[in-house]
């Protein structure tokens, strides 16, 4: 089920200004790749171009060599957890995940409306799948709780469960650790690592550079819409261009560690 992601020379401009320009990257199957960069570097735009929430002006996106950039988001086989995503209020954790699972049943609306046997089979399958997804993120015991009552860390896990129910081959996580407390971050880090071990290819945008350095196999660094570095966490940490992008040219001295890029990473 693992899949390789290839982004080739993707660009997208807003009002004549490039948010993402000629970005190319390859994430081998089963890799956990982080994308970092200063504010406005183009990280969220790049994610939306890969996930299909935004159309690219030029360039291609392929999964295992099959181009998907013209497909709508729900037909790309990509699960996305957005920075701004919220759980659905007034629904239990289980029902929240059911919404994700419904997206992948094929029998669809007509079968449901006519109450065909196929619909009942599907419904049972969806319920089982939703429970499995909750279990995968450690929320099985919380299935019947109203989603909005879960602590923020568990709401994030719930969003992950919802994305997993769409049976993605690639997972895009946009700042999944933002706003979480230390213990919740730890839990999330363990969960993401486990999903990767289970065979998912994962792309992660995160401002918490320490979190990223610990988790990622490789890191791609964006600045002003372009890729300025790509390498292992150690390579990226040592890259002078990356330090300059984060701090600005005047403030960087080669011998000086940068708290964002190096200091926190130990
Ligand atoms: N819908 C839009 N309309 C106009 N400009 C946009 C739009 N989306 C993004 N931009 C611009 O594109 C550039 C890249 O934005 P983007 O949100 O992708 O960066 P980012 O790296 O995710 O930033 P942050 O870390 O602050 O979330 C910014 O200059 C932003 O103002």
TrEMBL record:
Lineage: Bacteria, Bacillati, Actinomycetota, Actinomycetes, Micromonosporales
UniProt protein name: Amino acid/amide ABC transporter ATP-binding protein 1 (HAAT family)
Pfam families linked to this entry: ABC_tran, BCA_ABC_TP_C
SMART domains: AAA
InterPro entries referenced in this protein's UniProt entry, alphabetically: AAA+_ATPase, ABC_AA/LPS_Transport, ABC_transporter-like_ATP-bd, BCA_ABC_TP_C, P-loop_NTPase
PROSITE patterns assigned: ABC_TRANSPORTER_2
Annotated Gene Ontology cellular component terms: plasma membrane
GO molecular function, one term: ATP binding
Domain ABC transporter: 5-249
SUPFAM superfamilies named in the record: P-loop containing nucleoside triphosphate hydrolases
Assigned keywords, A-Z: ATP-binding, Nucleotide-binding, Transport
């Amino acid at each position: 089920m693992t899949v390789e992601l290839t982004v080739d020379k993707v660009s997208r401009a807003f009002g004549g200004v490039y948010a993402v320009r000629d970005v190319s990257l390859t994430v081998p199957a089963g890799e956990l790749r982080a994308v970092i960069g200063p504010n406005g570097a183009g990280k969220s735009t790049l994610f939306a171009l890969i996930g299909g929430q935004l159309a690219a002006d030029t360039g291609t996106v392929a999964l295992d060599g099959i181009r998907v950039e013209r497909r709508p988001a729900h037909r790309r086989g990509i699960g996305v957890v957005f920075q701004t995503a919220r759980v659905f209020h007034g629904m239990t954790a289980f029902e929240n995940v059911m919404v994700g699972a419904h997206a992948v049943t094929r029998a669809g609306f007509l079968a449901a409306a006519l109450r065909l046997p196929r619909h009942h089979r599907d419904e049972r399958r969806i319920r089982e799948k939703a429970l499995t997804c909750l279990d995968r993120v450690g929320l099985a015991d919380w299935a019947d709780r109203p989603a909005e009552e879960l602590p923020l860390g568990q709401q994030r896990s719930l969003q992950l469960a919802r994305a997993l129910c769409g049976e993605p081959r690639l997972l895009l996580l946009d700042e999944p650790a933002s706003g979480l407390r230390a213990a919740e971050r730890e839990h999330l880090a363990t969960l993401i690592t486990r999903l990767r071990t289970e065979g998912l290819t994962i792309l992660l945008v995160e401002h918490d550079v320490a979190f990223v350095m610990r988790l990622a196999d490789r890191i791609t660094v964006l600045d002003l819409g372009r890729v300025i570095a790509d390498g292992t966490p150690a390579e990226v940490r040592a890259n002078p261009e990356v330090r300059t992008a984060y701090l600005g040219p005047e403030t960087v001295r080669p011998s000086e560690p940068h708290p964002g890029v190096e200091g926190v990473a130990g």
